[in-house]
Amino acid sequence: MWADVLAGAAPQRVSGPLRWPFLHSHPHDDAPAPAERETIMLDPQPLQQVAGKAPPAAAIPVGADTPWAHPRQPQRGATPETRAAACAEYAAWIAGRADLLRAARCELAGHDLACECPEGPCHRDVLIDIANPPADPLDTGTSLMGLTVNCPAASMLLVEGFLGGKTAVAKTFGTDYRGPVAIFASPRINEREMQKARIAGLAADWHAAQRGWLGTTVLVDVHQVHGQCCTPSAHPVSVDGTPLFHWVFAHPARLALPTHGYGFAGLRPVAWSVLIRRSARIHPPAKDRS
């Protein structure tokens, strides 16, 4: 890839809007996966900029030493998990910055965005979705998946484990996906989880009352439940004969205020703009849309 770039080949498009099939599987589901949706290259894309080189033609740089730099940019050589955590943290932070949201729509809309980060989650992905919010945030997205979780577990996933929060939830399906996940809190209440919250000293009723998109976290592992794995998040190994899987999360980043939306089954691509309150989803003036 680097040889191609240095030779003047087209810049590497490192992520692009996700046009993936739903990245979840069921051990008893032998049906073929849905066909992938083709990336439309006319859409603004996140690009990788070569260190020390000018950004790709027509792209706006958003890396270090630019107004759009990540204030807590991971160090060069950071692990994919660390970069995913930094991306999730950035998304929760910028969601509360009305000034930056407005500037992104006005200055970045319609442009490719370049950063020196390697392939994988990067704050350029967040800015792409904020500057070019899709009509339906559940239609596509850039390096983010969404997951609906019952209460109070959804809210407790966004509390650090050492403070009594949850680090794992049980699902009837697994996934190969690892990376940032936006958490949507459904109105369904799990009484077993309510009791766990009270034992942990958390405000169970407050966590149970949370609704909508609450923030982001990073899915770091998925494995079939066995014995006392993931204690204290122990669960039965199966439900009505269906094996259960532990989804293990780390690096929670809670929104200052939840955003409205609607839940869905499974794990699916979503836009980072689901984390932006509707009142802040301001489109740029008509003259800036092209």
* Annotation, overall tally of beta strands: 11
CATH architecture of the domain at 145-272: Roll
CATH C-level category of the domain at 145-272: Mainly Beta
Q: Determine the CATH superfamily of the domain at 145-272.
A: Hypothetical protein
Helix fraction, binned, reads 10-25%
Order of helices and strands: HEEHHEHEHEEHHEEEEE
What is the secondary structure topology, with strand pairs?
Blueprint: H1 2-6, E1 46-48, E2 60-61, H2 80-94, H3 98-107, E3 113-115, H4 123-131, E4 145-151, H5 153-156, E5 168-171, E6 179-189, H6 191-199, H7 204-208, E7 212-224, E8 238-239, E9 242-243, E10 245-259, E11 267-269
Parallel strand pairs: 1-3, 2-3, 4-6
Antiparallel strand pairs: 4-11, 5-10, 6-7, 7-10, 8-9
Plain-language structure description:
- It is built from 7 helices and 11 strands.
- It has about 290 residues and is α/β, with parallel strands linked by helices.
- The chain has a domain at about 145-270: Hypothetical protein (Archaeosine Trna-guanine Transglycosylase, Chain: A, domain 4), CATH 2.30.130.30.
- The strands form 3 sheets. It has a 6-stranded mixed sheet with strand order 5-10-7-6-4-11. Strands 1-3-2 form a 3-stranded parallel sheet.
- The longest helix is centred in the N-terminal third of the chain and has 15 residues, at about 80-95.
- The two termini are about 30 Å apart.
- Mean pLDDT is about 80; it is low at about 1-35 and about 285-290.
